[in-house]
Amino acid sequence: MFIDAHAHMISRTTDDYEAMATAGVVALIEPAFWIGQPRTHVGTYIDYLSAIVGWERFRAGQFGIRHYCTIGLNSKEANNEELAEGVMEILPRFALKDGVVAIGEIGYDEQTDLEDKYFRAQIELAKELDMPVMIHTPHRDKKRGTTRSMDVILEHGLAPRRVVIDHNNEETVREVLDRGFWAAFSIYPSTKMGNERMVEIMRQYGAERIIVDSACDWGISDPLGVPKTAKLALQRGIPEAEVRLACYQNALAAYGQSGQMQESDWLSPPPIDQRTLYEGNSILRGGREARVEEPKRSMEELLIE
Ligand SMILES: [Zn+2]
């Protein structure tokens, strides 16, 4: 069984859901993020957040995958102050919905003053609501941005065990682990972190507090990043217990702190019934026959060896 702790499924197709379910992904977390072009007003943000807590959760369930999400104002759009102010007002009402496991993904993009302002405001929100936090670390000037993110979190008094630092690489992992945070890695084809590099990191650092995710989104990315990395790691001699930690157990331990995510969600799942509607809408088209299945998932049949 795998958990993909970072997957922007709103950008993905039903084929992706089918492939993930077949590969053993039982649960995933969809972080709130930007959509590839700037949003122009808070209304589009409200609809986006409604979609990831509602329709997308339903859609994943139609393929037997449990869907969770994180709620937050992303760093890029923090630079639009008018939008950011509006979003900050509506965040609390979304953060408390079913299946929301953290405030995120928040942090720095270009490390501007506005990004800093809304990053801090959302850390305070996480404290107030007693929620875990998912940190997006910047692609540019990553090392400094990662250090700064952790400094700010500690300055606000959040416990590192409540915070996942995502998009790590070889340059940042040591400090993140040494300071007691969860260290997540997004496996991207040819850009940030390929899975051979990931396996080497596991060889060097073990799997304690390491989380592997795909971060699949609207860009070139691979929704099978977690199961593929797990398989490669096993092939390259990483112990099964460590693969299990990095590709399943640690994500559950970190985000399970929200009280919104537990193993029984997928060990005793509701049946797949594609005849079900969400606000009158279905994933089916035309005369396609609905898939209807009683739950039959068990630990044994999902082990991928
Ligand atoms: Zn993301």
Describe the structure.
By secondary structure, this protein is of the alpha/beta class. The chain contains 12 helices and 10 strands. The longest helix is centred in the middle third of the chain and has 17 residues, at 113-129. It is globular and about 55 Å long. The mean pLDDT is 93. It binds zinc ion (ZN).
In short:
The protein has helices at residues 14-23, 42-53, 55-61, 81-95, 113-129, 142-155, 173-178, 195-205, 225-235, 240-255, 264-267, 299-302; strands at residues 2-4, 25-31, 66-71, 100-107, 133-136, 163-166, 182-186, 210-213, 272-273, 292-293.
The succession of helices and strands, N to C, reads: EHEHHEHEHEHEHEHEHHHEEH
The main sheet comes to: 8 strands, parallel
Q: Oligomeric form of this entry?
A: single chain
Strand segment count: 10
Instruction: Evaluate the radius of gyration.
Output: 18 Å
Arithmetic mean of pLDDT:
93
Into which percentage range does the β-strand content fall? Answer: 5-15%
State the share of residues found in helices, binned by percent: 40-55%
Low-confidence stretches: none
Strand order of the largest sheet: 1-2-3-4-5-6-7-8
Q: Tally the helices: what do you get? A: 12
Q: Label the structural class.
A: alpha/beta
Q: Give the overall shape, derived from the CA principal axes.
A: globular
Report how far the terminal alpha carbons are from each other. 11 Å
Distinct ligands: zinc ion
